[in-house]
Design a protein that fits this description.
A hairpin with a 2-residue loop joins β5 and β6. 47% of the residues lie in helices and 18% in strands. By secondary structure, it is α+β, with helices and mostly antiparallel strands.
């Protein structure tokens, strides 16, 4: 059962990490956890302070990301955006390399790509791709140990950005390139990026249409054609996801959560949650005790 908290736990970078970059390679065995309590503490739901990349070299892991479960078998890569809440549910003995990097250390172009691909599902790696990634991981780990090098941070930063670029390229290879997207697909992509940044403050489709310099009708038509759902439904789903995160992982009241998500009308928010999920906010929260 999750611990009581006013906020979703965040794994922060400590002073042991180099100025906003943390990289490590570990082998984990179930026998490392002597008690069930130790495993529960290690598997607690959390967000990460930076963008995180987990490259699974050996073994397998069952993880939950924003209430979706994924079984991951090596070799594979998992990208977590700082907004996402995740936890380990189970694993076999495994070897994993984890990189956490803050925005200020990321190449601006790479950061833009990460915002575009998030949320990204875990991805299995083909042999030729995994070889390049594992070799780059080794390079990053090597530089991470050269604290006495006068260019230590630059070497670590540049090598880790190369690793991030390789990982991004793998995710992008699964998608259409921008120059192959139709106009309605480009509109949908732009809308989704705006929604991620503004869901707490902008709730009306017309406001998103204005930001995109198109009519509300054309925005709705584009989103419906590419996703099957209306603009209003997308807005509601994004708000409800954040509400679920706060309900499940914190002890804030439903009224507090409604206000945090931009709703002064608490009863309206409660009705919206029930309509969207098929259960009341309190019923959803009580599920965590089941």
């Amino acid at each position: 059962m999750p611990k009581s908290s006013r906020n979703i736990p965040v794994n922060s970078m400590t002073d042991n990490f180099s100025q906003g970059i943390a990289i490590d390679k570990i082998s984990i065995k179930k026998s490392d956890f002597k008690t069930e309590q130790q495993f529960e503490e290690a598997a607690q739901s959390h967000r990460d302070e930076g963008h995180t990349f987990h490259i699974v070299e050996k073994g397998s892991v069952l993880i939950e990301i924003d209430f979706q479960k994924y079984k991951i078998n090596a070799p594979a890569v998992v990208y977590m955006h700082p907004n996402q809440v995740h936890r380990i549910l189970d694993f076999t003995n495994m070897t994993v390399c984890s990189l956490a990097i803050k925005n200020e250390n990321l190449n601006s172009d790479y950061l833009k790509f990460l915002e575009e691909i998030a949320p990204a599902k875990p991805l299995a790696l083909k042999k030729n791709v995994s070889t390049n990634i594992f070799e780059t991981v080794s390079l990053c780990l090597n530089f991470s140990k050269q604290n006495d090098n006068k260019l230590y941070h630059l070497l670590l930063k540049d090598s880790c950005n190369t690793l991030v670029a390789l990982i991004i390229s793998v995710f992008l290879s699964q998608e259409k390139s921008l120059n192959k997207l139709s106009r309605v697909e480009l509109i949908t992509k732009s809308f989704q990026q705006l929604l991620e940044k503004n869901y707490c403050t902008i709730k009306r489709p017309a406001e998103y249409a204005k930001l995109l310099n198109i009519s509300t009708h054309y925005l709705n038509e584009s989103i419906k054609n590419t996703t099957g759902s209306s603009v209003s439904q997308h807005i509601q789903v994004r708000i409800i996801l954040e509400a679920k995160r706060l309900l499940y992982h914190t002890d804030k009241s439903v009224k507090e959560i409604a206000f945090e998500l931009g709703y002064d009308d608490y009863p309206y928010f409660s009705r919206l949650f029930t309509k969207t999920t098929g259960m009341s906010a309190l019923t959803f929260r009580n599920k965590r005790h089941d």
